[in-house]
Amino acid sequence: MVDSPMSASFTSAGILNIDDQRIKSIRPLIPPQILVEDFPLTLAACETVINGRKGAEAIIKGDDDRLLVIVGPCSVHDVKAALEYCDLLKVYAAEARQDLHILMRVYFEKPRTTVGWKGLINDPQLNGSFQINKGLRLARGLLLEIASSGLPTAVEFLDTISPQYIADLVSWGAIGARTTESQVHRELASGLSTPIGFKNGTDGSVDIAVDAIRASREGHVFLSVSKQGLSAIVETNGNPYSHIILRGANFGPNYEKEHVASTAAKLAKAGLPQRIMIDCSHGNSKKQHPRQIIVAEDIVAQLSSPETAQNILGVMIESNLVEGKQNIPAEGPTGLKYGQSVTDACLNWQDTVKVLDNLRRGVNIRRQLRQTNGHTQDPEALLAKHRPQEQDFNDLSQLNRS
Question: Residue 66: CB partners within 8 Å, gap ≥ 6?
Fold first, then answer.
């Protein structure tokens, strides 16, 4: 007989305790409804959320010819810097609203391949103290302030409980590459009030994202938590606004024309709308943040091509006040550089504006294609005329294009 590595204990009633053998501690979590009452939805925020969702839904359906743009920091670790970024993006979004439907990327939860900082909700102090109640307050408060200012937001739904705390303030959501194949995330997506983008797998598999879209568009019954924090049985109607995101893979990108055409064919075979979002970062940028500029250039070329123009519904861009990334120093957040990512490296604000301007040009070329049934006098000349040069971008100076 082999001894168990676990040390069993006895309860006060003398019964052998075989539960929670690997649990170090359990702390109380604020119920969602209490947090919602502490940070109630304002009328201005409500209007922003609704308009953000309606715009995204219309683009996904193909009823709106603008491009859906999810742009912002890889993750939020500093509320002040996030609000400064919001102020910049809000002004640009208003100027570009005829061409781009812009939502600010406000990510609080970070999936980790092994270990690492898991985001503002999980560890708001960035020091391993895991003050999750504080993290939830910071997250909801920030979303409320951004939405009240008039700028819609986008998040990744990584945890299946956290949406009860923040989802009413969100206009679009993503299910990441590591969770797209998860049944509980597909069920979650089927009940969320936002459009949801499913990323292809880290191995490049598009099929799992197609399957996820099909699953999330159906109703499900599953275990969850109510706004009061009670265990509950939830029945959903299904989400008609789920779609695919091409984010590249561990072995390389999948944003180019042939990848878009192949993905569109798989969506058509599954009986789904052939509408695709492209993530300029992650595998598509080979984890080199300046390559997002090159990916965006290729997207503009595809918007100018009759073969792929109507398949592309939107883009994702990782952007921050300051380019690049930094590690969390030993002394904690006090040693961080203001406005720079602590997770994936990002474009700076100046280069972000140039990328967005270029995408606007692509949208307008696509409109010309539609008006002329897929033909312009010279689409290549139009594209060349508006193509930005390398010297226009600060980040390209450090990039090897090979």
Answer: 55, 59, 98, 99, 100, 101, 363
> Residue with structure tokens 């993290």?
135
- Which of 83, 223, 106 is closest to 173 using CA atoms? 106
SS3 292: helix
Taking the complete model, does pTM exceed 0.85, yes or no? yes
Per the CB < 8 A criterion, the answer to whether 289 and 395 are in contact is yes
Looking up tokens 């002004």 gives 91
Question: How far is the CA of 253 from the CAs of 281, 294, 298, 313, 394, in angstroms?
Answer: 9, 12, 12, 18, 23
Span 321-341, average pLDDT: 93
Q: What residue segments make up the domains of the chain, in order of their start?
A: 30-389
30-389 homologous superfamily: Aldolase class I (3.20.20.70)
Do residues 222 and 187 make contact, with C-beta atoms less than 8 angstroms apart? yes
Helix (H) or strand (E) holding 114: none
- The closest alpha carbon to 53, from 39, 33, 68, 71, belongs to 68
Q: Exposed (0-12), middle (13-18) or buried (19+): which is 173, by Cβ within 10 Å?
A: buried
Tens of pLDDT, residues 25-45 = 999 999 999 999 999 999 999
State whether residue 221 is helix, strand or coil.
strand
Crossing angle of helices 291-303 and 257-269, rounded to 10°: 60
- Residue 244: name the closest of 194, 321, 322, 175 by CA: 175
- 276: three-class secondary structure by DSSP: strand
